[in-house]
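Handout, page 2. Input:
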Amino acid sequence: MAYKPLDSISITDIINLGIPELTATQLHQKLTEIIKIYGPATPQTWTHISTRILDPGLPFLFHQMMFYGCYLDFGPDPPAWLPDLEDAKSTNIGNLLERQGKKFLGPSYKDPISSYPAFQEFSVSNLEVFWKTILDEMNVSFSVPPTCILVDDPSEESQLLHPGGQWLPGAYVNPAKNCLNLNGKRKSSDIAVIWRNEGDDESPVNKMTFEKLRSEVWLVAYALEKLGLEKGSAIAIDMPMDVKSVVIYLAIVLAGYVVVSIADSFAASEITTRLALSKAKAIFTQDLIIRGDRSIPLYSRVVDAGSPLAIVIPTKGSGFSMKLRDGDISWLDFLEQAKSYKNIEFVAVERSVESFSNILFSSGTTGEPKAIPWTYATPFKAGADGWCHMDIRKGDVVAWPTNLGWMMGPWLVYASLLNGASIALYNGSPLTTSFAKFVQDAKVTMLGVIPSIVRAWRTKNCTAGYDWSTIRCFGSTGEASNVDEYLWLMGRALYKPIIEYCGGTEIGGGFITGSLLQPQCLSAFSTPSLGSSLFILGTDGIPIPPNVPGVGELALNPLMFGASSTLLNANHYDVYFKGMPSWNGKVSIKHGDVFERTIRGYYRAHGRADDTMNLGGIKVSSVEIERVCNAVDDRILETAAIGLTPPGGGPENLVIAVVFKDANASTPELNSLKQSLNRALQKNLNPLFKVSDVVPLASLPRTATNK
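Output:
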């Protein structure tokens, strides 16, 4: 569509978008007034249009007319949101800088917006000062405080053993205890969790106070001890992310055990792999997952996976639709063992900061997932990112549709509770109008998304008629986003900013993000996260100089607080450091994404540099997909799985290239084959995976070594 400059738009142009004449006249009058003061093509013009003219009830075509008309000749990276200085001063980081900016930056400190880039650089060059300050601001309490924040021994031996340094040496702590402590961030009557179950749209949202959450977690922790497992044992959770699974998660960590995170969408074979890698001694699950009229078996998948002892929660009431396996116990019987301890505080098991708190999984390139342990420090990285970048604080309500099987599940727990905010959980599909109503009714202030969800909302117009005005900002992660879809998303909440956020399971948070102290551009990052630095490698493998535009594979400074320093099933150094260039005497971390730094200083993600793809926010190796696809039909010789970015940008589509054994023989009808591939992938890997296209080829291109 061709757009006009704002000062060339007529009332008729607005009417032609389906807007009534009287409304069009009023809109045009407001537009004329704004242009008269700010001009037809400045960021300030757009800011006033987005806050004074646009609302979710107007056709999105009109929103696009305003945005693209304003920035017609602006060039790349037009800002969709500008920070206001007074608002910036009230953010967590803005408030910190107003109090201590001159201490950090000296007389050059001006204000939180002007001085933010300098503070980001300070956070990297003064890691000990920065992280001590943030942990103090978050009221993190240690039973034994660290001897210092960071030990970074430059010796060759130490750089091989601890290339990422040693954080909080000597400290003993419990992250779950810090989530439940009553302090300046929370009192017992504050709301800890807000939730609603699918189908209860007309009922008020459910609420759990911190007092009730503490009591529930303590009871589960006591019951866990009755199982007789050794401290440090791994205990899996394979459930939807609801109030019970959050209680269980916190109780496992509080009692000194290790959570094993397994997504509730996984097939039995994938559950088996994760249980074996983690050496889990028990697993929490439920009998069924209810989605609308469908009942999806979960416990039976856990049984088929050959799980250890299962504690099984009934989805409805107290009864089960199936008989439990010998040795497995019901949720009620599990709690019954600890009933005499009800409302008695459980004394948290404080462990060395290097101990494992959680084992999560990320796709590897060999088909087997990487088993990534989070230490007791990692939760504080998640909490700090929420505090610094999403500005999560006491009184906030944080929703992010996810699962404890993915890192954003534990991230949501820690980023909310460590900062005194409420977690908002919807037990149902986030792709529905019911979820949109829950966001309204729960009065969500920070809404996290993945781009695939936003695309579904826009396609189905799920949010129409619901009031999202309580949202202060969005967060977005998991996959590349689309400019128009994110312009639409901002418009649902009266143009609140979207904080793009990218990191990794092994980091426990982000290395690049947006900020409420900087102008935000659609589908782009504005800054490395505080305490992190990154490099874009040129074609020669050498980092492009800082602040110089370019495109290349991403590398990270290894000194990252909370980052994992080991893998359970691979050599950590070989996976993340081997063959990587050094910068200022430190070998950099391999990340695997291709990034661009633009001429205006923003960053954009351009997909993977290796054969790992991103489908609906889930990283998966092409090897895993191809292994399943190769077995679908006897006539298939081999397949290649490709993640294809749509022309307009956004989430990757899965395309399968197929080579048949006999090119002259009859081949399957491609649409039928696509359906068979989908069934196989959804059964054996993940029910969320979907093939968008099947392309037959005579052969696959190969290297000289036949790869």
